[in-house]
Each structure stands twice: as C-alpha cells, then as structure tokens.
Write a structure and sequence with these properties.
By secondary structure, this protein is α/β, with parallel strands linked by helices. The chain has a single domain, classed as TIM Barrel (Alpha-Beta Barrel), CATH 3.20.20. Helix content is about 40%, strand content about 15%. It is built from 9 helices and 8 strands. The chain has an 8-stranded parallel β-sheet. Strand 6, helix 6 and strand 7 form a beta-alpha-beta unit. Helix 7 crosses helix 8. The longest helix has 18 residues. The protein is globular. The protein starts with a strand and ends with a helix.
C-alpha cells in the first residue's frame, strides 16, 4: 500500500517509528509533503533516511502572503533531489484566508509553471475553491493529484481531465456520504489514498494523531463504498501511486 500524502515532519513521533508501524501493516511507500522551504528540506532528509519514503515539495497557499512565497528559486533547487517526486502541496484555500485570493493564485501559478518546467506532477490543495482551482489548472497539461479530495464540485473536472483523486480519513466519517459517492465515480486507475498525517485520522481511530499505518482504514471504507475487495483496491491505489509519482 502507498500513503500518497503525509506530513511526517509535523508528526509527534519519530518518522522511523511511524514508518516501521506502516510497514507492519503493509504500507511500503509514503509520500511525505513539504509545505515551505524548511519543511521541504525536512521532507527530503526523511526521504533520504528511509526506504520507501519520497517527497513532494511545495509552498502551501497559507504562506502566499509571506516571504516564503518568494523562495521559488530555492524550491527549484530542492526539486532536483532524486527522491523529490512532485511539486506541492500548492493550491487555493478560501476557508483559512491567510492570504488574498490573488496572492494565492500567483503562488499557485508559479508552482504550476515550475512543475511544467521540471516535468513533475503537481499535488493540489483545494478548499472551497473548486471553480478557481479548475480555472488555474486548465492550462496545465501535466499530472494532477487532487489531495484530500473534499470538493464534489470538482469531480466533473477531475473526471473530464483525468486527474488523480486522493481520499483521506475524512472520507470515512459517518456524514461524508458525498465523498464516498465521489469515490465510487472515480475510475480505478485514477484513485489514490492518503492519511494527511498527522491530521484527519479515519473513523476507527478518530480523535488521535494520524499516521501512515492508518491508511488501511480509508482503503477499507472506500472499498466498501465502491463494492471492491479491500486487497484489490489496495493494489490498485498502490499501482496508481507508482504511475502518478513515477515511484519504483
């Protein structure tokens, strides 16, 4: 199994402990996420230290109004690392307005251009910004991963454009019917799973700090919703992550 999106540098426990527990339940790959230059450097260090850990590097939209947004040159240099597999997370967020829409869009566009220049996939954060996200992504023809999918309004665009759609622990919550219905509509070859650790622990462990091993609960919930066998869905999402991020 692959946890396609985790923030190992934000977890309380050492990454070695989390990776060991993940391996014990069959999670053999983790894509850890950088959300700023220091976070990206930490993500790369963790990827270097652990087999099966890879890094997606970006500057998230919450920092679009800070000096971090002017460090794209440093981000480009970090992305040359052999275990850097994607740009992001980057995107748009109209819920936590730490930056204006125009500041967020400028930073998002710059990282999309960087992903295009480096021929890397882009990991997209979109929260209550479906139309704006779709518009920003329209000129981008590379691989798109919609991380922690929570916007059914983006589903038609994702299906039409062939985006990868990644579901996190919130898809397991009792009231998340729309998310599970969206997961049913995603083609098997475009579905990913993630934990977004240490956030959004799935229902069986809700209220605790999340970790990569818990991706098994999200796989189980999605398999039930889709009418798939758990092992079959685990294999599909594992193979999809390998293709989306060019993982070994």
């Amino acid at each position: 199994m692959t946890d396609s999106h985790a923030h190992l540098d934000a977890c309380d426990e050492p990454a070695a402990t989390l990776v060991e527990r993940a391996h014990a339940v069959g999670v053999t790959r983790v894509v850890t996420i950088g959300t700023g230059i220091e976070s990206c450097s930490a993500a790369l260090a963790l990827a270097d230290e652990h087999d099966g850990v890879f890094a997606a590097l970006g500057i998230d939209p919450h920092q679009a109004a800070t000096p971090e947004a002017r460090r794209l040159g440093e981000l480009r240099e970090l992305l040359a690392h052999p275990k850097a597999v994607a740009v992001g997370e980057t995107g748009l967020d109209t819920v936590r307005r730490y930056a204006t829409p125009s500041e967020q869009r400028r930073l998002f566009d710059e990282q999309l251009m960087l992903a295009d220049e480096l021929a890397l996939p882009v990991v997209v954060h979109s929260r209550d910004a479906a139309a704006e996200t779709a518009a920003a992504l329209a000129p981008f023809h590379g691989t798109v991963v919609l991380h922690c999918f929570s916007s059914p309004a983006l589903l038609p665009v994702a299906l039409e454009r062939g985006y990868y759609v990644s579901f996190a622990g919130n898809a397991t919550y009792p009231k998340a019917h729309e998310l599970r219905e969206a997961a049913e509509a995603i083609p098997a070859n475009r579905l990913l799973v993630e934990t977004d650790s240490p956030y959004l622990a799935p229902q069986p462990v809700r209220g605790r700090r999340n970790e990569p091993a818990n991706v098994v609960h999200t796989i189980a919930a999605l398999a039930e919703a889709r009418g798939d066998e758990i092992d079959e869905l685990a294999l599909h999402t594992h193979e999809n992550a390998a293709i989306a991020f060019a993982l070994p």
